[in-house]
Specification:
Elements (H helix, E strand, L loop, with lengths): L37 E5 L2 E5 L1 H6 L1 H6 L7
Antiparallel strand pairs: 1-2
């Protein structure tokens, strides 16, 4: 096995972006930006949730929104 130089990890380059993982269950996304997944910005960092975790935690997600959003 060959080692890659620092900064050349195949998962983080523009040609090979890191796979999108659900922040709750860790399942990988079926594509680069699945439309059924939820994206949230927490502490300035975008996090993604799969459709199953999003559905199971919908009340918690809505509870964090200001009432003007719903």
């Amino acid at each position: 096995m060959t080692s890659l130089p620092p900064g050349s990890d195949q998962g983080d380059s523009p040609e090979h972006p890191a796979p999108l993982l659900c922040a709750r269950c860790g399942i990988p996304a079926p594509g680069p930006h699945p439309v059924t997944w939820t994206c949230s910005v927490e502490n300035g960092t975008p996090v993604h949730f799969c459709d199953t975790c999003s559905r199971e935690n919908l009340r918690s997600i809505e509870g964090r929104l200001d009432s003007a959003w719903w």
